[in-house]
Amino acid sequence: MKEFQYTIKDEIGIHARPAGMLVQKAKQFSSRVMLECNGKKAEATKLMAIMSLGVKCGAQVKVTVEGPDEEAAAADLEGFFREHL
Amino acid sequence: MEIYTGKTISKGIAIGKLYFYAKDKQQVKRYRVEEPGKELERFEQAKGRAVQELNTLYEKAVREVGEVNAEIFQVHAMMLEDEDYNDSVQNMITAQKVNAEYAVASTGDNFAGMFAGMEDEYFRARAADIKDISERMIGILLERREDTGLPPVPSILAAEDLAPSETVQMDKEKLLGFVTRFGSGSSHTAILARTMGLPAIAGISVEKEWDGRMAALDGALGQLILDPDEKTMKELQERLAQDQDQKRLLAEWKGRETVTAGGRRIRLYANAGNMTDLVSVLENDAEGIGLFRSEFLYLESDHFPTEEEQFQAYKTAAENMAGKKLIIRTLDIGADKQAEYFGLEKEENPAMGYRAIRICLSQPELFKTQLRAIFRASAYGTVSVMYPMIISLEEVHRIREIVEEVKGELGAQDLPFGEVEQGIMIETPAAALISGELAREVDFFSIGTNDLTQYTLAIDRQNERLEQFCDPHHPALLRLIEMVIQNGHAAGCWVGICGELGADLELTEWFVRAGIDELSVSPSMILPLRKKISEAE
Questions:
Q1: What pTM was computed for the model?
Q2: Hey, what CATH topology would domain A2-84 get?
Q3: Is B493 a catalytic residue?
């Protein structure tokens, strides 16, 4: 299992657009990607679930990746967060 | 005439007949189905069509409001594909043996309810997106989707609520603006309205009976006026015409260089009086800030602003200008601008009293704090500094000594700073008359015509009774300006104007001929002036 922490810089937080992009990104991997914030968890392939976390600017999220391509997926996702969130 | 006040969604003015847009809430009946498999299939088919519709809508939105704003419709399509959403609908159909419409409606309600209960306004507003996709699905399933209920003539639309998709679907030719009962400034509908330049307000209990009445909508004030009287109507029509002129100017003159008909470049800068002015400075395409009135930091505070407080403000301004020139005028307090904590004595003749550079040179610690902040901010952009109310060479020499001290101190502390152009304001007849000598000491002059006028003509600019004696184009004033430009140029200084006279379109031609290098005016005058300059000479 791989994991990383990220502090959200986007002004609105994980809003609809980047959430949609994150889902598409997470679906490219066969590993299971989980998002954790404020004690709540959501699977990164589920748009409504991610948005219902209500992740705001400045919040810290923990991303865990588990599966056959976890190494590549974690690196790619970390880049995604940095670029879009 | 009736006036209703709600909240601003999108600024601007619309005048026209009100059209009540009644969206029949689609009634969904729950019934038991014998073959859930068939219902699941209906659901899948409807979903396919909904996604198709959303793609079409996305393309229309890309054309009308741009890719970024259009993406909400792609997100809608993704919401329809969401695992949890689909699981919920499918479970209801198979476990409860209910019809697809009902399963979609109650799933939609559940998800919308979840968002509506969230703490953050942005996420709460997402409930509207869920309702939008739900309504779309139900409409398809009920095969009840036809006309969009649009007004036959250009109208102001009144509705309980508008979904983002409805806003984009509407024919812009027919829509002057809209007023709704629900809706928030952070909804996608609001963002779309702003992008489309449609005036809009929310929070008004619209009534069906209003349909067909004459109305005016003032987006900025959040007001809806029914049956406006003649006077109100006239005022609003004038403002509407102004808005339209401004928009035309924007479309035509934004992004262009400021060049005279003779081919000479004039620097067209804006005056800014606080941080919020930065927005309109950039919106109106100013080429720099020619007068950043730093005193707002002092006037809006209840203590002497610290170096750090000032540094943050100047740095933000410099960064926002992204390399364009930012000319900070040092503290110009006194006379009509007072802050209590300065403890200034009441004066008989404050315009000629203890003010501006006189305070700074008498209280050098105060001055040095500001200069340190300005020099530190110069590491983040193109910063210049100018000093107000100069009357003598000695003052300029004293300023230079203090500047050298400040630079020395910053250097010793390893605090970075850039090249800071040094200028003075020419706003006293004394400075104008010795401008030849002053020009050898500084990099630029900025003529402050407001004070120069009042000192030259001995006319108090705050005394309305003197208006009949005040000729803003007085030959004495124009001769002084001409002299300052010539003396400045002879010693290699560039010369600008930052007073109100700079925006006087009747004088533009004259300024250009006199050889002015820069004009700094209020942001709303930038584009009209650019146009005027292009016709000059």
A1: 0.60
A2: Histidine-containing Protein; Chain: A; (3.30.1340)
A3: no
